[in-house]
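Case study B.
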Amino acid sequence: MSRKTRFIDACYRRPVDCTPVWLMRQAGRYQASYQAIRQNMSFFELCSTPDVAAEVTVNAVEELGVDAGIIFSDILVPLRAMGAPVELTHSGPKLSDPIRDEAGVAALEVVDPLATMPFVMRAIEIFNDHFQGEVPLIGFAGGPITLAAYLTEGGHSKSYADLKRMLFAAPKTAHQLLDKLARQVVEHLKAQVEAGCHAVQVFDSWVGVLSPSDYAELALPYHQRIFDELRGLGVPRILFGTDTATLLPQMATVDAEVIGLDWRIDLDEGWRIVGERRAVQGNLDPCCLLMDQPALEKRVQQVVDAAAGRDGHIFNLGHGVLPPTPVENARFVVETVHRLTQR
Ligand code: 1CP
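Model:
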């Protein structure tokens, strides 16, 4: 079975020969090949140089043996295209002039991805040329709450007080912002599929900072709209967030083929909540990859056991690969899942 068939069939809950695996943030600083490339160019330079972005994506697939690639880019790339000059510093993403009022929101523009981010689509084409369509490629965008978090906070945050000040105290401005972000997400994902992506994932990584009632008001309507508008593309759609255990009953109403789970809920319990009709992606704690291989194998086995051989499990981490991860442990996870789930 080709990697493409294995991955796509699992998304649609069809039987496969073994459980497909890919790892969130599988391309990055824990790889020597990535570090070598980053010595010569800045992060956003890398993202906007299609042959190098494609090379980094291909390297991750080849070094790890995963069943899918995820195009090397960032959720911050479309924010820069919309007019928010986000930079990447040693302490993470930074926006010197965070967006906290109506004027700031009004200045953001929903842009044509082909005109403003052609390099993303070009990198997708180069990846597909390399693998001749044999390895599926995932396109992605950030979710509205996560993008709004970077714009309002100006970077990573512990309390998300600036985000929540806008969401709770200025709901009209907040909805204007979320609406623009949702429209940009749809445009960006459509362009990536048209360029050749075989699946799409929305990373609403920080949506778990919301209570269930705030999720219902501020995130769910946008998730539903984004996924409804992507239905016609005919590719599997993955919805991911972290800390979503209490939000899953609502996320299960979004028309996504696959729901991503983090480790804060057991996979079988999460699957029960999102329903047997869905495929699920997850949910090994990325910290497990810092252990020795016998201990790591036990943790992989636990996730495989929780999936209990059901169709529609895509093995992944509950969140991204951590920078101190040994590459051989990432490769070991992929081999171990394939070995343990051979059918
Ligand atoms: O070289 C470097 O120092 C850059 C580190 C780095 C990398 C490797 C950043 C900056 N982004 C990326 C790549 C990236 N980002 C990918 C493609 C790689 C792959 O998956 O193989 C993807 C899908 C993302 C998505 C992304 N960026 C998310 C969603 C996924 C998640 O982990 O939650 C988020 C939240 C970001 C923001 C971001 N980009 C970079 C950093 C350091 C951060 C901040 C993370 C944080 O606030 O904790």
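The CA atoms of residues 42 and 93 lie 13 Å apart. The remaining cases will be described in the next quarterly update.
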